[in-house]
Amino acid sequence: MQTATLTIGTRGSPLALAQAHEARARLMAAHGLPEEAFAIEVISTSGDRIQDRPLSEAGGKGLFTKEIEEALLDRRIDIAVHSSKDMPTQLPDGLELSAFLPREDVRDAFIGRAAPTIRGLPHGATVGSSSLRRQALIRRMRPDISVVTFRGNVQTRLRKLEEGQVAGTMLACAGLKRLGMADVVTDLMPLDIFPPAPGQGAICIESRIGDERIARLLEPLDHRDTALALACERAFLAALDGSCRTPIAGHAVVDGSRLRFGGLILSPDGQNAHDVTIEGRAGDAASLGRSAGETVRAKAGPRFFEGWS
Ligand SMILES: NCc1[nH]cc(CCC(=O)O)c1CC(=O)O
Q1: Among 200, 203, 223, 226, which is best to mutate for testing ligand 1, by the most ligand atoms less than 8 A from CB?
Q2: Do 108-188 and 223-309 fold alike per CATH?
Q3: Which positions carry S-(dipyrrolylmethanemethyl)cysteine (predicted)?
Q4: Which of 47, 89, 235, 275 could form a disulfide with 290 if both were Cys (CB 3.0 to 4.6 A apart)?
């Protein structure tokens, strides 16, 4: 039996598997290798097992990556495929994000039952979302709406919607497209009123620093514009300390040698918000993101982060 050239680690949700399959297809095409050259290893994470409370309470983003990163460091897997949005800004020693696949649609999608749009929902309607950013943005648009925590994978959330537990929910357009489920979307949110989470829509690959064989295999997969946008968005998040209790949005667009970034922080009720826009050389992506983070942090003042963290 041929042993695999590369073992790919991933979570087991349908979206995670779709992303791992996309990464594998790109590796096969880049190197002219058959599917058998790549083994896919499904790893269950704490984030998958904790279903009874919001993740921001259970310990935040690292919950989806811890067990996978242990497998990377133990050499049980060679690369890990993730949603960039779920990645903490600080990675464990010895690991790095070494490739970003071309970004999908970054917008949030509304999936409504009572009405196709958030604006069209009846007074006091209930919308399900466990994302602090989406909750705050919805409340800013419609203070009368009650937003309830809504966990589980895409399929679970859509089932709860179908059962009538809520009048609508929100999901990333990118995930729905990758699952071939974009037809459930009833409205696509404009970027200016509903800016995405840093990293939304971008698949990243994590690997061991200094593993030259793996680095050579990943090199052709890295998409320059996505990698630069992500460097900026992740630096913005890091400059804000990545506080899981503060709703944060941020989106960078690369156009040739230029990069434009817009960032926003909100109070959980959406009534206080501070934004920043910055433009500069794409090659300075990380420092632009960091300075945008510092700007918005200074605008908001220290008390902004204390109130609800
Ligand atoms: N936190 C869960 C998560 N992580 C990435 C995506 C969607 C895919 C993406 O943003 O790339 C989702 C689900 C969602 O927000 O709808």
Answers
A1: 200
A2: no
A3: 244
A4: 235
Contacts (Cβ under 8 Å, ≥6 apart) of 18:
178, 179
Show the CA angle centred on residue 206, arms to residues 204 and 218, nearest 5°: 80
Which tens digit of pLDDT belongs to each residue from 210-262?
A: 999 999 999 999 999 999 999 999 999 999 976 667 899 999 999 999 999 99
Q: What is the pLDDT of residues 173-190, one digit of tens each?
A: 999 999 999 999 999 999
Give the H/E segment covering residue 95: strand 95-100
Q: What is the pLDDT at residue 58?
A: 67
86 is catalytic: yes
Q: How far apart are CA 274 and CA 296, in angstroms?
A: 6
Does ligand 1 lie within 6 Å of residue 172's CB atom?
A: yes
Domain ranges of the chain: 1-100+202-222, 108-188, 223-309
pLDDT range class, residue 109, cuts 50, 70, 90: very high
Residue 309 has pLDDT above 60, yes or no: no
Q: Is 149 helix (H, G, I), strand (E, B) or coil?
A: coil
Q: Is the pLDDT of residue 56 over 70?
A: no
CATH superfamily of 223-309: Porphobilinogen deaminase, C-terminal domain (3.30.160.40)
What CATH architecture does domain 1-100+202-222 belong to? 3-Layer(aba) Sandwich (3.40)
- Distance CA(309)–CA(10), nearest Å, equals 31
**Domain 108-188: what homologous superfamily?**
Periplasmic binding protein-like II (3.40.190.10)
- Whether the CB of 108 sits within 6 Å of ligand 1: no
pLDDT the model gives residue 304: 86
* Atom 9 (ligand 1) nearest CA: 201
